[in-house]
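hiii so um. not sure if this is the right channel but i have a protein structure encoded as tokens and i wanna go backwards to a sequence. like what aa goes where. can anyone help
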């Protein structure tokens, strides 16, 4: 049967005339004959354009949803701001009413603002655990933030004292206000011997490398504000610099000791140089032989490898040591006598040889002399 010539319309709307064999447009495939529906390039382009149009439509819908969310959040923010302004107006309106003073309104507003500030009342036991001046500074800061009145300060201080300080406070009489408490407290816990002890311990400290150079410098300066009498900037900086190692002193030798800012900046630069040196050393150790740790774990005790290929410690100390070990004597621990002869141990299967008493005499040995003719002569 000859092929028939048919005309059909593509997805792009173009009329095309093609030849094919008995194609069934009902969608059912004939079991006896195959269907070869032609697919044109314009059809593929049209499908890609439709997929792209769907993606663009989805992106537009997402953008619209995001715009709606932003609009909702903006409206909620505007409502909160309007409510806050209304509250402020109500407070300003109530200031003129009788019975409510401006000071009380200001106190209420300040208390509400400081309510969420996380600050704790310091505890004090004795002068060896906390500097008394620092304790008083913490008490005053807490009372200032929380707006504690003078008549309630003593109650807070009584709860903050522990141990010896609490016993001392219970024995005191006639303390009516905070100023009287502060005077007696310093006389008891921050006397002249205590001040000298604090300053001596501060001077004898040395930099141990736990903190950065700049952090240690400023932390030491912070403690000097509790010294009585006060020290000058030159004295403080000079004594702190003496607490550093020698190489730090060399870098700070030419800097003016009065210039605290310059000293701090120089220490920050030295911190950066030291950190960079540590990073370079670590990178060198890792890149010099990156497989060394893994090889050592694999070959350290591998009996199938010759001794010269095993991972061992080749340091001079281990090579020149006076006792056998795995690094300088591979057969150590083997009980075979022919292989473990570094230290000849006595054979306990047989009794020890008989030793003569006293020192041996020359008469017990044969003595010879070389003659002129080259022969040996027996002397005894």
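sure thing!! here u go:
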């Amino acid at each position: 049967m000859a092929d028939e010539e048919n005309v059909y319309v593509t997805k792009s709307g173009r009329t095309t005339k093609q030849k094919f064999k008995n194609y069934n447009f009902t969608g059912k495939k004939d079991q006896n004959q195959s269907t070869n529906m032609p697919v044109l390039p314009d059809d593929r382009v049209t499908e890609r354009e439709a997929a792209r149009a769907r993606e663009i439509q989805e992106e537009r819908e997402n953008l619209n949803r995001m715009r709606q969310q932003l609009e909702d959040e903006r409206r909620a923010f505007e409502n909160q701001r309007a409510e806050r302004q209304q509250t402020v107006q109500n407070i300003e309106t109530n200031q003129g009413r009788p019975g409510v003073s401006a000071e009380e309104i200001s106190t209420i507003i300040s208390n509400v603002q400081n309510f969420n500030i996380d600050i704790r009342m310091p505890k004090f036991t004795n002068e060896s655990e906390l500097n008394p001046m620092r304790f008083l500074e913490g008490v005053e800061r807490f009372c200032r933030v929380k707006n504690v009145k003078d008549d309630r300060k003593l109650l807070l201080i009584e709860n903050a004292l522990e141990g010896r300080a609490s016993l001392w406070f219970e024995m005191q009489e006639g303390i009516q206000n905070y100023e009287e408490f502060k005077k007696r407290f310093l006389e008891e816990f921050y006397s002249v011997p205590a001040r000298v002890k604090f300053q001596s311990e501060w001077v004898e400290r040395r930099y141990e490398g736990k903190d950065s150079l700049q952090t240690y410098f400023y932390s030491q300066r912070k403690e000097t504000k509790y010294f009585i009498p006060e020290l000058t900037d030159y004295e403080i900086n000079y004594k702190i610099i003496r607490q550093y190692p020698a190489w730090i002193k060399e870098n700070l030798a030419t800097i003016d000791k009065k210039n605290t800012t310059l000293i701090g900046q120089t220490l920050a630069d030295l911190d950066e140089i030291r950190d960079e040196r540590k990073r370079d050393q670590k990178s060198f150790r890792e890149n010099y032989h990156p497989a060394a740790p893994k090889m050592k774990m694999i070959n350290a005790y591998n009996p199938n490898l010759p001794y010269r290929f095993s991972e061992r410690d080749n340091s001079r100390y281990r090579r020149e040591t006076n006792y056998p070990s795995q690094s300088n004597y591979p057969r150590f621990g083997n009980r075979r006598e022919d292989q473990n002869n570094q230290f000849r141990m006595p054979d306990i299967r047989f009794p020890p040889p008989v030793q003569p008493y006293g020192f041996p005499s020359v008469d017990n040995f044969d003595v010879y002399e070389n003659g002129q003719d080259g022969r040996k002569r027996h002397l005894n």
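oh and Residues 86 and 368 are 129 Å apart (CA to CA).
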